Amino acid sequence: MARIDWDDSFSVQHEELDGQHKKLFDLYNELHEALLNDSVENTTVTRTRVLDNLVDYIDYHFKSEENYLTEIGYPDFTKHRRIHSDFSKQVNRLHEDIENGQIIFTTSLLKLIRNWIIDHILKMDQQYVSFHKT
Ligand SMILES: [Fe+2]
Ligand SMILES: [Fe+2]
Asked: The domain at 12-133 falls in which architecture?
């Protein structure tokens, strides 16, 4: 399971949103580290806190991206917002299950989050780039 490193293929050609995507990668990478580092001080509490930050930031980013898409009159806005909201519900549920001790945090969860973020930025977010450039 790898980190996510930024490169230009992720760029949505919008400074603020690129900055938020980079921050998302940073928070994901922190979670990645927290999970793979087996040191004594790296307890479940630490991992849950890092997951907290990521989940909060995902919601923050979705809101600002949606505001931007509304501003530019993006035609696929409703679909984009639904995809955000489905993922947000999914990670929030995972987050709760982890906090309640119903599931443990594993690399497969990390992989799910990683794949979703990468796939979403490269496929869905890239679609509004062609719209706002024209
Ligand atoms: Fe995004
Ligand atoms: Fe998005």
From this structure: Up-down Bundle (1.20)
